[in-house]
Write a structure and sequence with these properties.
Elements (H helix, E strand, L loop, with lengths): L8 E3 L2 E3 L4 H10 L3 E7 L9 H12 L5 E7 L2 E6 L2 H9 L3 E2 L4 E6 L13 E9 L8 H8 L4 E5 L1 H5 L5 E9 L11
């Protein structure tokens, strides 16, 4: 029990405590397969129960591996996926219309504060024009578009390599970042 004895320090008007760095680092690794989401309901709509929302999303997402939902309050949820591939598949679906509300997914961020959230990302399709065929490997395409955002999904012609004029990848981009026209590989 003595291991949990904390010594606090007052800094200005705020109490400050030290935390164990390696435990925090492990927490960050644990959260690397998480997404944030917010359910926006129309005024007067009856809110979903956790079970109803979970069931509705299970019918929409249909991932082969499991995921877990934790409610955070004010319409925010956090989702933990057992596999990164499934996280990307779900995230690629973007905004989900639940017929009674809209569900927005976003990348997990550390120090998330639901009281200060603003729309800062958008999902866009990036076309890699004139991309040589020897680069059309999943990892190479992901590394290339990773320079401008988080790669989520390939379109079917790119995935199946049936169309060679350009590769298309769905990317989650920060709207505040500089948008580029070219990527040098």
């Amino acid at each position: 029990m003595d291991d949990y004895l904390q010594f606090s320090v007052i800094k200005g008007d705020v109490m400050s405590i030290p935390i164990t760095e390696d435990k925090y680092a492990k927490g960050l690794v644990d959260c690397s397969r998480h997404l944030h989401a917010r359910l926006v309901m129309s005024k007067g709509e009856k809110p979903y129960t956790v079970n109803d929302l979970s069931l509705k999303l299970s019918n929409i997402w249909k991932t082969p591996s499991t995921w877990k939902m934790v409610t955070l309050g004010r319409g925010f949820c956090e989702f933990k996926f057992s596999a990164v591939k499934n996280l990307r598949l779900v995230w690629a679906q973007g905004t989900v219309n639940l017929k009674s509300g809209v569900f927005h997914l976003s990348q997990w961020t550390k120090d998330f504060n639901l009281y200060t959230q603003h729309k800062t990302h958008a999902q866009i399709w990036i076309s890699l024009m004139g991309f040589p065929q020897e680069y059309w490997r999943e990892k190479t395409l992901m590394e290339t578009v990773g320079a401008v955002g988080t790669p989520l999904l390939f379109d079917a012609p790119t995935q199946n390599r049936v169309f060679g004029q350009y590769a298309r990848v769905l990317v989650d981009m920060a709207l505040l970042k500089c948008i580029v026209d070219e990527i040098l590989v």
